């Protein structure tokens, strides 16, 4: 019977499908019903009558094939009806719903265990027509964490209570091959319930794309649709207020009813019929709690606050006599700053306790105590026992770096004025010094004997010997003039060469320039052999420097215009201004000892130019407010710069544009710096009247830093009118130093 009932259900569903096919699209649209053939004929007649009355759409034609299917279905229905009648006779207590033949028929059997009758239903075949379980999730574990099944061979249970086994998984190589072979593998998503990849529909992929693009996931949503004006237009205006009735008086008059209620309560309180609640006494019972319930802390317990110092005998109102300060100690205590005093009070003696006045520092001490408690750190600091000598750099002993000058050997005196400049001959035998009165003195280094004196009549700002060894002459700079002098007592061959350089027989062709070259060969012994007249308003020449070959001479004047720097060529008797425009006032210039480079020091910067290519190479930034002096190491890779703000900066030209080391040993402005041409020494002089001697060793290895060691402080010049040692020069081939001071003395320092 179960099989028969199941067949009836199948035939019934098949008949419904055929009816849906016969119904057609038009029938579905107008919701027509299909009846038996007689009813159809009646409806056709009625339809003909209706068609005569009005226009009615025609019914679509039905296929001939559908007629044959109908007939077969009708035969099947007749057979099913016979079987159904037989089943109805067997089961009289069946439901009225069984006539629908939707579910399979059940049967009653006797249980072998209990002996009672029970209803047994036939098993449902897993067919699409009979069950929709294939469309649902086969895993029916519910909304639980799926990691509970990680160690089990199954994923959960299906609707029948059977285990759902875990699908086989491949390794990473299989997954990679699957992504390569299957072009649609990227359109799948992993399902945790089934542990499988499920394909995503086009709608789901579109939602994912919209979410990644930051768009609205709903494709039908229009963010730019026109706004619906609910309260705009005729008849939609919202009238405010909602009621235009006048404000009643009860809104601002006090309520009489509330007044009556309050007065009733007041009379009851006065008569004693209402008594307020008495305040309950505080619970005097001790409250106990478990002190170990709080979790333990890993932090150390807080340190207690520092206790104030206890008073001593000196704070008594009647201290002993030895604690009372004297008048000198009282004055010293009053003149000392509050932070530097040993104690904040002075002991005072009173004859009786009743005569002690109020403590005037009470409020201040209480306030400081509160600040200590609030701001004092609760950390126990450990004092470090560090040897101060270990913090100092380890430098070699000065005795191991000899020779260097350490005492004054002789002294040459200019009696009229302070000595501004000096220069030493290339052979180291002669010293030329000039003072502000216009006197140039030539004297020997070894004995200090003056050999020659020239009086120029104006202040001498700079003196410099020519570095050539085949000629011997010096240049002195005064107001708007440069004078060339030939010293006496030189060999005839050197004299001839010097005269041919400064006063040749055939002069080179002159060019139009504001600078004039004037030769005075007749007065060469008593005066200059050659004079260069600088442009007017040039001022005093404060620096002269030679190129290493001795043909070019650079001069710096005191004027701050572009004509303050001039470069003179002796062989061609030609002068030119190398800069058309200068940023800042030029303080000093120097030639590079080995390369065609030119250093120009302005007030705050040092610029390095390439004379061959005529371009700026780099700008050094010493950080000095006003540069006063400068010198280049004989190797050409290092330079020292001094300033009026007491700084001495050492630059490594290959390293950086910032100073490698900054030295502050002078207490006043630095006036002069000079490297020794052969020894690893350099010196600096200052307005404090001292000369600092340094050992400066430069290594050929670029990875090794220069060694700078302070050696000696030489003091022998007096400071006059705020000026000390104005210029220093090293003696070639000897570790000797010559210094010129504002006191008019020129000193020679020997080792």
Automatic annotation (TrEMBL):
Q: Which residues form the signal peptide?
A: none
A Pfam family found in this protein is WD40
PROSITE patterns according to UniProt: WD_REPEATS_2
Q: Where is this region: Disordered?
A: 1-107, 121-142, 292-330
**Gene Ontology CC annotation, any one:** preribosome, large subunit precursor
* The BOP1 N-terminal domain, residue ranges: 149-405
A GO molecular-function term, please? Answer: ribonucleoprotein complex binding
Q: Which InterPro entries match?
A: BOP1/Erb1 (IPR028598), BOP1_N_dom (IPR012953), WD40/YVTN_repeat-like_dom_sf (IPR015943), WD40_repeat_dom_sf (IPR036322), WD40_rpt (IPR001680)
Q: Does the keyword Nucleotide-binding apply?
A: no
Which keywords does this Swiss-Prot/TrEMBL entry list? Nucleus, Repeat, Ribosome biogenesis, rRNA processing, WD repeat
Please report the residue spans annotated as repeat (WD).
Answer: 412-453, 663-704
**Keyword Nucleus among UniProt keywords:** yes
- Where does it mainly reside? nucleus
Q: List where in the cell it is found.
A: Nucleus, Nucleolus; Nucleus, Nucleoplasm
List the HAMAP family hit by this protein, alphabetically.
Answer: BOP1 (MF_03027)
Q: How does it assemble?
A: Component of the NOP7 complex, composed of ERB1, NOP7 and YTM1. Within the NOP7 complex ERB1 appears to interact directly with NOP7 and YTM1. The NOP7 complex also associates with the 66S pre-ribosome.
Name of this protein: Ribosome biogenesis protein ERB1
What is the originating organism of this protein? Suillus discolor
């Amino acid at each position: 019977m179960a099989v028969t009932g199941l067949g009836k259900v199948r035939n019934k569903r098949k008949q419904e499908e055929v009816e849906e096919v016969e119904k057609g699209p038009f029938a579905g649209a107008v919701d027509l019903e299909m009846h038996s053939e007689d009813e159809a004929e009646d409806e056709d007649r009625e339809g003909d009558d209706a068609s005569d009355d009005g226009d009615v759409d025609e019914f679509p034609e039905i296929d001939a094939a559908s007629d044959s299917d109908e007939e077969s279905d009708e035969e099947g229905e007749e057979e099913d009806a016979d079987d159904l009648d037989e089943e109805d006779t067997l089961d009289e207590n069946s439901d009225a719903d069984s006539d629908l033949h939707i579910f399979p028929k059940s049967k009653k059997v006797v249980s072998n265990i209990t002996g009672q009758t029970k209803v047994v239903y036939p098993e449902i075949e897993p067919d699409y027509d009979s069950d929709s379980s294939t469309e649902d999730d086969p895993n029916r574990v519910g909304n639980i964490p799926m990691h509970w099944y990680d160690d089990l061979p199954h994923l959960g249970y299906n609707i029948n209570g059977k285990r759902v086994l875990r699908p086989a998984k491949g390794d990473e190589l299989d997954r990679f091959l699957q992504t390569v072979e299957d072009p649609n593998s990227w359109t799948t998503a992993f399902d945790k319930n089934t542990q499988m990849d499920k394909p995503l529909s086009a709608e789901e992929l579109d939602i994912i794309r919209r979410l990644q693009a930051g768009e609205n996931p709903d494709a039908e949503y229009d963010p730019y649709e026109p706004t619906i004006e609910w309260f705009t237009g005729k008849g939609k205006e919202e009238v405010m207020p909602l009621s235009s009735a006048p404000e009643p008086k009860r809104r601002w008059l006090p309520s009489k009813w509330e007044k009556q209620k309050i007065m009733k309560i007041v009379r009851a309180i006065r008569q004693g019929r209402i008594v307020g609640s008495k305040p309950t006494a505080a619970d005097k019972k001790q409250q106990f709690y478990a002190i170990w319930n709080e979790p333990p802390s890993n932090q150390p317990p807080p340190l207690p606050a520092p206790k104030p110092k206890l008073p001593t005998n000196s704070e008594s109102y009647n201290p002993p006599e030895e604690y009372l300060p004297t008048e000198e100690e009282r004055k010293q205590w009053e003149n000392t700053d509050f932070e530097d005093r040993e104690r904040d009070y002075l002991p005072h003696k009173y004859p009786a306790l009743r005569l002690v006045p109020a403590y005037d520092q009470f409020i201040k001490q209480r306030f400081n105590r509160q600040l200590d408690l609030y701001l004092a750190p609760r950390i126990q600091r450990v004092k470090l026992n560090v040897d101060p000598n270990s913090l100092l750099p380890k430098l070699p002993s000065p005795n191991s770096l000899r020779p260097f000058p350490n005492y004054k050997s002789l002294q040459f005196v200019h009696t009229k004025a302070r000595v501004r400049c000096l220069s030493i001959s290339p052979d180291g035998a002669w010293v030329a010094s000039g003072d502000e009165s216009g006197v140039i003195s030539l004297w020997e280094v070894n004995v200090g004997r003056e050999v020659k004196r020239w009086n120029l009549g104006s202040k001498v700002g700079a003196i410099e010997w020519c570095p050539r060894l085949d000629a011997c002459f010096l240049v002195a700079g005064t107001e708007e003039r440069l004078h060339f002098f030939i010293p006496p007592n030189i060999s005839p061959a050197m004299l001839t060469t010097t005269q041919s350089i400064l006063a040749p027989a055939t002069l080179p062709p002159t060019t139009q320039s504001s600078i004039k070259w004037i030769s005075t060969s007749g007065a060469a012994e008593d005066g200059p052999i050659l004079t260069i007249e600088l442009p007017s308003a040039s001022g005093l020449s404060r620096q002269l420097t030679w190129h290493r070959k001795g043909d070019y001479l650079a001069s710096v004047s005191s004027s701050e215009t572009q004509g303050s720097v001039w470069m003179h060529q002796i062989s061609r008797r030609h002068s030119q201004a190398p800069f058309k425009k200068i940023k800042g006032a030029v303080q000093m210039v120097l030639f590079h000892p080995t390369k065609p480079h030119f250093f120009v020091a302005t007030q705050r910067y040092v610029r390095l130019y390439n004379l061959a290519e005529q371009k700026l190479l780099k700008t050094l930034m010493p950080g000095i407010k006003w540069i006063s002096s400068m010198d280049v190491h004989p190797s050409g890779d290092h330079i020292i710069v001094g300033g009026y703000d007491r700084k001495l900066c050492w630059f490594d030209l290959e390293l950086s544009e910032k100073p490698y080391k900054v030295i502050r040993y002078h207490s006043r402005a630095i006036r002069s710096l000079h490297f020794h041409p052969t020894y690893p020494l350099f010196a600096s002089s200052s307005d404090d009247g001292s000369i600092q001697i340094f050992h400066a060793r430069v290594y050929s290895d670029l990875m090794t830093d220069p060694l700078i060691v302070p050696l000696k402080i030489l003091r022998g010049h007096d400071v006059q009118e705020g000026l000390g040692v104005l210029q220093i020069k090293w003696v070639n081939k000897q570790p000797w130093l010559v210094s010129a001071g504002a006191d008019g003395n020129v000193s020679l320092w020997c080792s």
